[in-house]
Amino acid sequence: MTGASGSERLVESGPATLVELHREGRLVREYPGVRQLLAGASDAELARAGQLLARLDPGEVAAEHPAVPVVTVAVTGHGTLAPLLPPLTVELARHGLLLRPRLGDFDAYVFDLADPCGELYRADLALCVLDPMVVFDEVPVPWGPEDVERVARERIGTLAGLVARFVESARGTLVLNTLPLPRRFAAQLVDHRSRARLGVVWREANARLLRLAEEHDRVVVLDLDPPAGEGVPVVEPRLSQYTRTHLSPALLAAYAREIGHLARHRAGQGKKALVLDLDGTLWGGILGEDGPDGIEIGADGTHRGGAHHAFQRVVGQLASQGVLLAAVSKNDPEPVGEVLRGHPGMFLREDDFVRVVANWRPKHDNLTELAEALNLGVDSFVFVDDSPYECGLVRHELPGVAVVPVSGEPALHIEALLRDGWFDAPELTREDVTRVAQYRDELVRKDFLDSFDSLEEYLRQLRVEVQLVEAGPAEVARLSQLALRTNQFNQTTLRLGPAEVRALLDDPAARVLAVRAADRFGDNGVVGAVFTHRRGDTVHIDNFLLSCRVFSRGIEQTALCAVLRHARAHGARAVRANHRATPKNTKVKDFYPRNGFAPVTDDGTTVTYEHGLEVLPVPPAHVHFTEIPGDDGS
Amino acid sequence: MNSIDDFLILLRDDLGLPVTGADVGAGLDRVPGWDSVHLLSLLALLERTTGRALPLVEALEAGSLEEIYALAVAS
Description:
The complex is a heterodimer of chains A (634) and B (75).
Chain A: H1 4-23, H2 31-38, H3 43-53, H4 58-64, E1 70-77, H5 85-94, E2 98-103, H6 109-114, E3 125-129, H7 133-136, H8 145-169, E4 173-177, H9 183-186, H10 192-215, E5 219-222, H11 225-229, H12 237-243, H13 249-266, E6 273-276, H14 287-290, H15 303-319, E7 324-330, H16 333-342, E8 355-359, H17 363-374, E9 381-385, H18 388-397, E10 402-405, H19 413-418, H20 430-433, H21 435-450, H22 455-462, E11 465-470, H23 476-485, H24 498-506, E12 510-519, E13 522-535, E14 538-546, H25 555-569, E15 574-580, H26 591-594, E16 598-602, E17 606-611, E18 624-626
Parallel strand pairs in A: 1-2, 1-3, 3-4, 4-5, 6-7, 6-9, 7-8, 9-10, 11-18, 14-15
Antiparallel strand pairs in A: 11-12, 12-13, 13-14, 15-17, 16-17
Helix pairs in contact in A: 1-2, 1-3, 3-5, 5-13, 8-10, 23-24
Chain B: H1 4-13, H2 36-50, H3 56-60, H4 65-73
């Protein structure tokens, strides 16, 4: 948005401002501000915004705003799918992304999945939208459960074959979905025994679909039972009958929301930390006024205390999967510490948090400092607060933070937190599960750093160990995660899904090196990756990644020196590397030149550097390095 | 929605169609930016706005925006 007055307006009525921008023909120009305009919009407002945004030409938006990440989404399926485009457009826009849609022909999914030259194979996300009519269009009348079983088996068998072919050569992620069973079919069977049998047959078909996600790591199967179970209508009978739109607009909107989460992850914008307010959010009441014995928290049977306790359990569940927890609260630190350490009603404990910030400063300042301390971008934070004032202020001051407002009704906190799948990821890695401990170690390291006068002495005492190993299947998930999530030390922002990493492992011309690190405070695990390939006598570094947790300890120089040394030892004459500038990776802009590389070409966004391998840089003395296999060290 | 002007505002502000009064009587194929998806969006929008079910078959077969408006406001 331009100008403070616009920003203030949008906090009050973002969607209305969006309509004004549309009227004034300024939506393309103001596209980067749309994300903020949509924060907190209702479903109806999102539907309306989707209609307006879907009219924009993505090419024009991309040309005017090259920094906005573009996600190409190809859509195919069984019925009429054009109505999916407005909700998809707005769901991506909500996350600061730009949708480049590619809509296939009506009912062309078999053809599209089988056509390696088609759009589906080139898209970042390939959506194959399935609906109950995939099966029921083929079922004769009269029919019984056995007819449904036969058709479903055939259809899903065909689909499974197509999916196997697709994942062999397509570049992106394929999204399928389960088939909801509308009542209109079950109710056509008048006896309960047949109806139950239909339920079995149908669920087996859906289980087969869901298993495709277990068989192929580049396939996601969205389960549509949960939204249907919450009352989202599956079918709008008139639209289904007259226009072949077999999933209701509300279900398509729910589907699009899930795609938005996937696109966000794919664009490297997944959230990493959950920052919680305390009074009214984690417990009921006001600690400063009610005292530790007066706050509402606990599984002891009180209504509100129980609701807050249930919310804490959900937060704990997220944390167990690698989400970092922090608390930021306007309170005095002592009573907060007392409650977190000793209150019998608390589910979460002080140890569950990487940091608890209790003071009277503005929350956005605390969030900014917390991000610095954790070496994370503040836009990887999700912030939950029950105060509309605090939520509005954080939204205004830190537009990248995902703000989850909760109400005075604690039983609704869980739905509010989970509504947007902020932390969704295709799969978990070992590093995820130990992340909280890793970050706590990190804060201990910072305290340790503060006890030294010189950085060199600190680094020497830290006893950093670096290992560079040829990656194997065990590292695939973690390396893909680094490629998808790392933004700061990411030289090219080349995003790789697990299958893409695996393909590189299988490519004889390519090398994938995993960087492992440890120090006196513990093992950091796999913290980085170097992707290279060799062409003739030149080694190309396709990308170099390092987790933001371990910057500036000499790990990056050590790994780079090893790659150079290895290249020279194996007869290479030069090593080339690219740096593609993004808004987030300015920190590593000079990494290659600082280590003896000279620029060769520069097209405005990507600079190609070359190292002639005559004089190799000297790795930092404080780092203990374990050579890569096959490196003779010469 | 009380008048054809309200209908035009809805077309412009909710569907993003650059239509004017001159377009409402024209054949749908001559409405700027129009395609069949707009029709589905428009019908859903009219039902939401008026709170009443449209006769969908007639609406799908309508030849102009004016005819759709007439269906939406018919008592």
